[in-house]
Each structure stands twice: as structure tokens, then as C-alpha cells.
Amino acid sequence: MQCDHFDAHRCRSCTLLEVPYARQLREKQEHVGALLPAGIAWGEPVASPQEGFRNKAKMVVSGSISQPTLGILDRHQLGVDLRDCGLHLPGLQASLPVLAGFVTRAALTPYDVPSRRGELKHLIVTESPAGELMVRFVLRSEEPLARIRKHLPRLQAELPQLRVASVNFQPEHKAILEGDREVLLTGHETLTMTVNGLDLHLRPQSFFQTNTEVAAALYRQATAWIDDLAPTTVWDLYCGVGGFALHAAAPGRLVTGIELSREAIASARLSAHEAGVDAEFEPGDATAYALAHEQAPDLVIVNPPRRGIGPELSGWLDRSGAGHVLYSSCNADSLARDLAAMPSLTPTRGRLLDMFPNADHYEVLVLLERAAAMATRQ
User: I want to staple 127 with a disulfide (CB 3.0 to 4.6 A). Which of 21, 92, 240, 308 is the partner?
Assistant: First the structure.
């Protein structure tokens, strides 16, 4: 992938851009292999396109009303415009100049970090597999809200693929992308992310993998391993909008998803209802949910944030009766720590999925088996 911004040192986010892609994959596999225990049967790494794969653009808004920049900030806290970033899906990339024009028309003053003045902090844009868009305006205050509402019909005319628009309020001067409060501006509340023929509903504050193609491969691999084990009871902890749980659901199998975000739970329930899938979803903390139960299911799926599941949940899983744990991780270091805290569970299968090409991050899926379960399978 060739990038003028990288060559000019305006943006060096793709730290591995100069490394041949085959070498990127090989070195990522070597990295995770060195961190995790020996004896894991590794599948072939899942590759990704090097460009045009990101379904989400998280753009810092800087510059001026008449000449806004959408991209990142340099070391001087000045805006670097990355509307033409090659990582983004084509439809998403095409929407950014239109949104820059909207910033000017609606007189949305970009937030200036050094002076702590201005209103519009970020634009967060997500594209679905069908080409529909979700646009979120992250504001410092309600001051521009009326103007955004006033000019929204024209934006919808210019971007007919715009399905969901919302405003998020982040009043604090912190390196936090968004705040807790969200105001919906459109009649549609969710963006439909169709993955492997399953419609997953995404609300503004819900998490979804940024690489839809590789996410689909992740869910397919998880489903294959789960179906091979044929568990009758499954928990999906940190379930998000229900990707793993809905893929794992099958006749005669009780699947329960747990997620702290109530918005994500609402999305998962809607997806399950529309698909006619037998899965239950409840809001709550993953660790607290597990600790409140003496009896474990046959299989537990965990897909935590980068910090991992931590010692409490690792300890519970280690002493639980769960025969298998399916762990999806975006941080092999925290994964290695968590596996070391579960000595009664042996990692037997693994697969690296290159969710983030050109960077040193990746997703890894590992299946853990308890000795009794392994003996039964043999």
C-alpha cells in the first residue's frame, strides 16, 4: 500500500506499512506463538486486504469553520487532514468531503486543543456492508445542536446512504473520544451490519470490529469449533452486540450473552428476534455475572477489551466446571497473563486473524479445554 501521508511523515499510524505483508503476518504469528504456551495447534493466519478495509473513521476535527481538517493532530496539536486515508472503505472515504462541507455550512467550530475553545471535537463515521452510514458528531456542548438539526435534511439529501445520525457530548478536556450522553437525530436507531448472512444491529455507542471481512472470518472459525464441541449451554461474556452468541446459537443449545452496555444488549436482542435465534441477552458486568453463579455452562466465550479478563474471572474459570473456554483477544500480552491464571485449562487450538494490517496489532482466537473434556473427546 502506498500512502503519501506516510511518506511525508504527516501520519505514521501504519507503523508496518513498509514491511511486506507476508512478513507482517509471519512476524505476528511468531509473536503470539512466543507469548502463548507450546502445544497449540495453529491454523493458517487469516489475512486482510491492506487497504479499503476499515468500516469506521474516527476523525479529529480541527482547523477552522471555513477550512476544517478531518484526521489527526500532529505533535503541535495542529490538524492533519486524512479524508483520503486509504484504510477506509470506499463509501466511507467518499462521505468525508461531504461531511467537511457540512461542518462549514452548519458553522460548527472545530475544537482547538491548546486553547480549549470550539465545539466539534470528532466525527465518527461507520459504513455497513450494504453501504449505509452512521454519523456521530462529538460536541463539547449543546450550542451547535440546533444548527446541526437545521442543516441535517440537506446532509441527508447529499448522503442518501446516511441511515443513523447522532450527537455525542464530551464536555471534558481529556483524551477520551466520546462521552456518555447521546442524542439521536434520525428516525433510524441502528445500522445493520450483515455478517455471514446474520443481521447485527449497531447502535451509536455500541462496539463493532473495524474490519468486517476479518470479523466474519473470526465468527466462522468460532462457530466451527463450537459446533465441533456441541455444547448444550454457552455463555458469551463481553458479548457486545451479540456477534459470537448469535453465531453460536443452535437448536437445543442455550446461549446467554452478558454485556455492560445496555445499548449493545438492546441491539443483540433485536438481532436475535429478527433472526429467530434462541439466545438470551442480559445487561451486566461479565465478572460479576460469573461470580454470582456456582454452576458453569459447558462452554464460555470471552471477548474482553485490551486489558483482558483479569484475575477474578480467570480464577473463576479455572475452578469452574466449564469444559471449554473460547477466548478472543486483541492483546496477546493480556491473553498470556490470563491463560497463566487458568492452569487447569489447556489451550489446544489457535488462530491469528489480521484485523489490523499495517500495524502491530491483531486478533487471536484460542480454544481452551479442561483435562476431563479432553479425555472425553479422545
Answer: 92
Beta strands in 33-150 (DSSP E): 41-42, 56-63, 68-73, 79-81, 120-127, 133-139
User: Catalytic annotation on 330?
Assistant: yes
Report the predicted TM-score, pTM, of the whole model to 2 decimal places: 0.94
Which domains are assigned to the chain?
Answer: 4-50+211-377 (3.40.50.150), 56-188 (2.40.50.1070)
The pLDDT tens digits of the residues spanning 335-353 come to 999 999 999 999 999 999 9
Alpha helices by DSSP H, 128-211: 145-158
- Helix (H) or strand (E) segment spanning residue 329: strand 324-329
Work out the angle at residue 208's Cα, subtended by the Cα atoms of residues 202 and 214, and round it to the nearest 5 degrees.
125
At 174, list the grid cell. Answer: 481529556
pLDDT tops 80 at residue 374: no
What are the grid coordinates assigned to 30, written together?
511468531
Alpha helices in 15-89 (DSSP H): 21-35
Residue 226 in grid coordinates: 463450537
Question: pLDDT digits over 55-112, tens only?
Answer: 999 999 999 999 999 999 999 999 999 999 999 999 999 999 999 999 999 999 999 9
| Burial of 192: CB neighbours in 10 Å, binned 0-12, 13-18, 19+ | middle
What is the 8-class DSSP label of residue 110? B
Neighbouring-strand partners of residue 137: 123, 167
Distance CA 351, CA 323 (A): 20
Helix (H) or strand (E) holding 189: none
Which grid coordinates belong to 340? 497463566
Question: What is the per-residue pLDDT across 303-327, written as a single tens digit (0 to 9) for each?
Answer: 999 999 999 999 999 999 999 999 9
Using CA atoms, how far apart are residues 209 and 84, in angstroms rounded to an integer?
21
* Residue 82 grid coordinates: 486524512
Nearest residue to 152 (alpha-carbon basis) of 213, 103, 97, 80? 103
Give the pLDDT confidence of 245-294 residue by residue, as tens digits: 999 999 999 999 999 999 999 999 999 999 999 999 999 999 999 999 98
Question: Of 120, 129, 1, which is closest to residue 56 (Cα–Cα)?
Answer: 129
Span 6-28, average pLDDT? 96
Q: Which of 11, 14, 85, 330 is catalytic?
A: 330
Tally of CA atoms within 13 A in the half-sphere of 60 that contains its CB: 17
Kindly state the DSSP code that residue 112 receives in the 8-state scheme.
Answer: B
pLDDT over threshold 90, residue 371: no
